[in-house]
Design a protein that fits this description.
The protein is α/β, with parallel strands linked by helices and about 220 residues long. The radius of gyration is 22 Å and the shape is elongated. The model has no long low-confidence stretch (mean pLDDT about 90).
């Protein structure tokens, strides 16, 4: 990711539910600022001058301060694309706050300042984001046949590795791959986590103990 002379800047952030540095607005804002600084040295000067005027009580750890600085830096670009991946993995109430800030504050500000700002939000539908994004254009990968085919092919390839490593019969691997693909419900991350977990087992006995119930996790949280 970076700055393209033709298409402007691109910044991204990947959320992770089990990482305190990747599941809320503050680390997202810091990451966006850091990427913009790398792409445009004038932003570095702006942030330095901005922080120099702050009192110690108004330090960069404040959410509002980070939001204001990030909004200024983003909307001063001629064109910028923002990619937020895994927003469904945020801490409770964070997704709503983040989306509302972008829709209610950043996008209107960008439009008024002549900045062409595009926002791409990626994640699984979990009931929290649908209402906020219901009027926005959407691409639903879980309804695309080729997406499910990719999950099935990935599961088969990983199952073949499992068979080779833990001396499983090919038909057992095929059953595992089919079950993982079915239970994934269109979520590629689920298949990756389950298969990676199985391949990380150190011994055949550990693997057999994991598979003793002959079941795969029912969802990503259980994986």
């Amino acid at each position: 990711m970076g700055k393209d002379p033709t298409h402007g800047s691109t910044v991204y952030f990947f959320f992770r539910h089990n990482d305190d540095d990747r599941k809320s607005a503050k680390p997202m804002l810091r990451s966006i600022l850091a990427q913009l600084v790398e792409q445009d040295e004038t932003i570095m000067r702006y942030l330095y001058e901005k922080s120099a005027t702050m009192s110690r009580n108004q330090e960069l750890s404040r959410l509002k301060t980070l939001q204001d600085m990030t909004q200024d830096c983003l909307t001063n670009q001629r064109s910028v694309s923002i990619i937020l991946d895994g927003l469904d993995e945020c801490a409770e109430n964070e997704p709503e706050a983040i989306i509302s800030w972008f829709l209610d504050e950043v996008l209107p500000s960008a439009a008024s300042r002549g900045c062409h700002l595009r926002l791409l939000v990626c994640g699984q539908r979990d009931g929290r984001l649908e209402k906020l994004l219901s009027v926005q254009p959407q691409i639903r990968l879980d309804t695309v046949d080729s997406h499910q085919t990719d999950i099935e092919e990935y599961s088969k390839s990983q199952a073949a590795k499992i068979c080779a490593r833990f001396k499983w019969r090919p038909e057992q691997g095929e059953e595992l791959a089919a079950e993982v693909a079915k239970t994934s419900k269109g979520m590629f991350l689920y298949a990756k986590v389950v298969m990676s977990n199985l391949l990380s087992m150190c011994t055949i006995r550990e693997f057999e103990d994991e598979m003793r119930n002959d079941m795969v996790p029912e969802d990503l949280d259980k994986a």
